[in-house]
Amino acid sequence: MTTAIGVVLTDYIAAAKLEDQALSGKVLRYPSDPNAVEALESIPESELVDLLAAQIETLAKDKPGPGKTAHGKTSPIDAIGVAVPGIVRSGVVEESPNLPQMKGMRLAAQLTAALEERGIAAPVYIANDADAVAAGVASTRGRLDKLTCVWTIGKGIGYGRRPHAEGVWEGGHITVTLDPKERYCGCGGVGHLEGIMGYRAMRLRFLDLEPEEVFANARNGDMRCRKFVDLWHRALAAATASFIHLAGPGRFYFTGKNVGFLELPLLRSHLETMVRMSPLQSFSLEVLPPDDETALIGAGVSALRAVKQGAGSRE
Ligand SMILES: [Zn+2]
Predict the structure, then answer these.
(1) Ligand 1: distance of its center to the CA of 96 in Å?
(2) Coil, strand or helix: which one is 117?
(3) How many whole angstroms from 183 Cα to the centroid of ligand 1?
(4) Which range, of 20-29, 73-82, 152-161, averages the lowest pLDDT?
(5) Which end of the chain is more exposed for a tag (fewer CB within 10 A), N or C?
(6) Which tens digits make up the pLDDT trace of 67-123?
(7) CA angle, 110 then 115 then 117, to 5°
(8) CA 174 – ligand 1 centroid, Å
(9) 110: helix, coil or strand?
């Protein structure tokens, strides 16, 4: 049996134990109040490590199950996987526009040390959050060897893929427009997908409306909002079409907190105008309800796999 712990950082921290690559027991959440917004943004780096370590400790020392040893200790943890938004390489968070305090953080090393202080020795593996969702989807749907792509639509826009391919894959920052006025992306880049689709970017664009109101007004026929909602879908179609032209047609999943904004038929109609070569038209599109479970499983499964392969960077 393998025992792993999966942790996901989004607007909050979710953590759970996995036994044989399936969730076991309840999902812990910090802050526990689901209405607390942007709770992690203001937490300094060292405190964040402590918070993560505390959650992992709770799960690691959870009530002894069948794996209990004769000495009254629970079975050892084989791997700990932490999924974070941003560019992650070799356990270091190189960039994280939506959790800026994490930039440059040697998260794997810092968390390993904090856990050792708490008597927990297990390899820690850091993954990009969208990659973790892709790994979770691939693992739970038996698609580990087929091209599986995931767009996470939340505060930022994430792109994850399976099987793993060396690279950065910051799909949310792909350029989808040449309009020099498109400069709302959190990273500062002009014309980026996230500068159109990201939650913060939408708030900057519509200073008088919340993103939820923009989409609601569009449904009620407001022309300004309708025009933007169409741009939002065309941007996602453009980014998806670009990846299809590079990696080939795969199965694209859409998830994340704000996936409710997505109208799949509208996306598909734009995508069909952009992908015209017949060998590339066998892509499929599917919405996944936003949940923490898929990313948690993916974080844990990726960590187990990394341990098995003797640890890597993003895989
Ligand atoms: Zn950007």
Answers:
(1) 11
(2) helix
(3) 9
(4) 73-82
(5) N
(6) 444 444 556 899 999 999 989 999 999 998 888 899 999 999 999 999 999 999 999
(7) 100
(8) 7
(9) helix
For every residue of 168-197, DSSP letters joined together read: ---GGG-B----TT----TT--TTBSHHHH
Q: What is the pLDDT of residue 312?
A: 45
Task: Annotate 253-274 with b (16+ C-beta within 10 A) or e (fewer).
Answer: bbbbebbebbbeebbeebbeee
Look-up: residue for tokens 């950082």? Answer: 9
165 versus 272: the higher-pLDDT residue is 272
Contact predicate 218/228, CB 8 Å: yes
245: Cβ contacts below 8 Å, ≥ 6 apart? 275, 280
Q: Residue holding tokens 């020392």?
A: 61
Vertex 314, ends 313 and 315: CA angle to 5°?
Answer: 95
Of 82, 84, 66, residue with least CA distance to 74:
66
What predicted TM-score, i.e. pTM, was given to this entire model? 0.86
Tokens of 69: 């040893």
Q: Point out which residues pair with 151 in neighbouring strands.
A: 159, 254
Q: Which amino acid is located at 32 in the chain?
A: S
Note whether 47 and 30 are within 8 A (CB): no
The Cα 140–Cα 148 span in angstroms is 12
Distance from residue 159's CA to the centre of ligand 1 (Å): 13
CA of 22 to the centre of ligand 1 (A): 34
Q: Do 280 and 271 contact (CB within 8 A), yes or no?
A: no
Distance 173 CA to ligand 1 centre (A): 4
pLDDT of residue 126 exceeding 80: yes
CA of 163 to the centre of ligand 1 (A): 24
CA of 181 to the centre of ligand 1 (A): 14
Could you tell me the distance, in angstroms and rounded to a whole number, from the CA of residue 172 to the centre of ligand 1?
7
Reading the block at residue 311, the tokens are 């640890």
Determine how β-strand 92-95 pairs with β-strand 148-153: unpaired
Q: Are 296 and 16 in contact, with CB atoms under 8 Å apart?
A: yes
